[in-house]
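Students often ask what a holo structure prediction actually looks like on paper. The answer is less mysterious than it sounds. You provide the chain, you provide the ligand, and the output is a string of discrete structure tokens encoding the 3D arrangement of the protein together with aspartic acid.
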Amino acid sequence: MNRIEVYKFGGASVKDAEAIKNVGLILQSTPQRPLVVVISAMGKTTNALEAIIKAHYNDPANLPTLVDQLKVYHEDVARSLLHGQEQSLLNDLHDLWVELNWILEDDPHPNYNYHYDQIIVFGELASTKIVSAYLEMQKIDHQWLDARSFIKTDSEFREARIQWEQTQSAIDTFVRDALHNEGMVITQGFIGSTPYNESTTLGREGSDYTAAVLAYALDASSVTIWKDVPGIMTADPKRFDKVARLEEISYNEAIEMTYYGAKVIHPKTIKPLQNKDIPLFVRPFDQPSLFGTKISSTETHFLPPIIVVEPEQVLLQISTRDFSFVAEEHLSEIFNHISRHRIKVNMMRNTAVSFIICVKNETDKLDKLKNDLEQSFHITMEVGLDLITVRHANQGVMDQLRRGKEIILEEKFGDTDRMIVKEWK
Ligand code: ASP
Ligand code: MG
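The corresponding structure tokens follow.
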């Protein structure tokens, strides 16, 4: 067999019939086989399913409307893609909705994260069914596979960790066989299953990571993530005027960027690829002839400043009740709470009488953390902040970024400058 390639198409690239036709064109025009194609849920389906899950707990009267919207969205796309030949696809989709309704007719499970994963997987299952039916109509050979049969995980629902040995051997069996027979596999990103065949997910936007896991296990020659951007940019074009595409960056640079919050690829994606030296391409699905960005082991020198903004940050200032020093034993107590609530600390600083952390404003997690900490500490909270990270900064860029903002906290380490800021009103 030739070396395998892995493609990943995100939600935006399958959001409607036109988008799915474009995926078909890309798959038809690339001669590359064997090819594994990982696909996300259509458009904003995962958010819509999250609303359904919340409604199941808090607002069940609203469930029929929400589920109906989801059905109509998928069935409309199915009809306009397959005009006239959609019956068997509609039957497949119907089976999925029946299964979903079974879950929703029961009481919601007491374990929210478990329940979430049993429901959220329907987005990926439905989208891949639709793409697969369209490819079949286009006579593009492939086999549809349920990723839960080979992405094997632990039971950390909503943030499941790959069980590498089981995953490797399942991929060797199911995926290699299908590739051997059909040349191409269509499967879901993001979803997996426990040894007890319960559904799990790898964290929001986790499809990129699925593509990397497959590439690792299959010793792929490359991974291509098809996106609605020209490649990896020096900053978010929605926020900044003068942004440029990065032609090539190293794995290490990509790891740094995603660690600091760059949203182009899921942070866990790079490591498995780096371990096997598999290059990753980020390319625009609306201009498939363009090169995009290449991420590989080649170290790049003289990179321009790269800016990552994480909005909606909160600064928590934690001090002892008697205003004595915050000592090491306090820190270990503080971090116990932080890790128990699975909160990611984006920046921290200790001062004489307080310990300061900067975290994302996720209200439910933060409320719990604050409650716990208030048993022993005095807490103040400042909301509405941005965390700006600049790699390879220069004076000009930093001056420009500081303009019009109050700088709350600033730090520089190696090639990375960071600041927590507040817009002047
Ligand atoms: N559909 C999932 C999400 O929106 C996973 C993904 O797209 O990567 O988070
Ligand atoms: Mg997505």
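The mean pLDDT is 95.
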